[in-house]
Design brief:
elongated; 9 helices; Alpha/beta knot; six-stranded parallel sheet; 12% strand; 6 strands; alpha/beta
């Protein structure tokens, strides 16, 4: 299968460089945004759920990657983790529809690095598996959960399978035995985020707000550069 994409997705990094803090970006750009847009951005950020995240293991299809990002944005999940393994993580912009601007992608060099980072942050890794002992509605009871999504052809790596103490299945009634990875992600994200309230800490909310303002204000980079030259 030929991989086609609008480009390589850049891992999250500061849009404005080290010269500016998030609070300074907010101070400079907030007055340039109309009230309705500002209220919409703040409402979305207030509903973001940091206690749920996704780990994609060696994703191959850029359309699947983009669809997972869209689902994360739709259900309020602000961060996606990726272990690229053999090939770069690509996102089809025609599918993502701009949601790659609102969801952070954290790339890990290997499975062990991802496991260490996620477990240190208090996440329980839950693998997706046709014979999992959990059902989607069970996910909402887990305080901090990371859904592990496998490669479209090879599934989940052995290292990640060992690290995930539990697995979740999606009950099905038809003849098919599995669903596309992006469809599975949407179903499980809906279940995992149901009835959870926004829980981002203040620092993360401020950073998200600064980034949203940066994307909302035309020529934001030039505005910040001009402000840097002021005495």
């Amino acid at each position: 299968m030929k991989r086609e994409s609008d480009g390589v997705f850049a891992p999250r990094s500061s849009l404005w460089g080290a010269e500016w803090s998030a609070s300074e970006v907010v101070r400079l750009l907030e007055p340039l945004v109309v009230d309705a847009r500002r209220e919409r951005v703040l409402a979305v950020i207030g509903d973001r759920i940091g206690s749920v995240t996704v780990l994609m293991d060696a994703p191959h299809d850029p359309h699947n990657g983009a669809a997972v990002l869209r689902s994360c944005d739709a259900f309020g999940v602000p961060v996606v983790h990726v272990v690229p393994r053999r090939e770069a993580f690509l996102v089809a912009g025609s599918v993502a529809k701009g949601t790659e601007r609102w969801v952070d992608v954290v790339e890990h060099p290997n499975a062990e690095s991802a496991i260490g980072a996620l477990e240190s942050a208090g996440y329980e890794l839950v693998a997706t598996h046709p014979k999992g002992e959990l059902e989607p509605e069970d996910l909402r009871a887990l305080p901090r959960v990371c859904l592990v999504l496998g490669n479209e052809h090879e599934g989940i790596s052995e290292a990640l399978s060992r690290a995930a103490r539990r697995s979740v299945k999606i009950p099905m009634r038809g003849f098919v035995e599995s669903l596309n990875v992006s469809v599975s992600a949407a179903i499980l994200l809906r279940a995992a985020t149901l009835n959870r309230s926004g829980d981002l800490p203040a620092e993360a909310r401020e950073l998200a707000y600064a980034r949203a303002l940066f994307h909302s204000v035309g020529r934001a980079s030039e505005i910040l550069q001009a402000a840097r030259r002021l005495p």
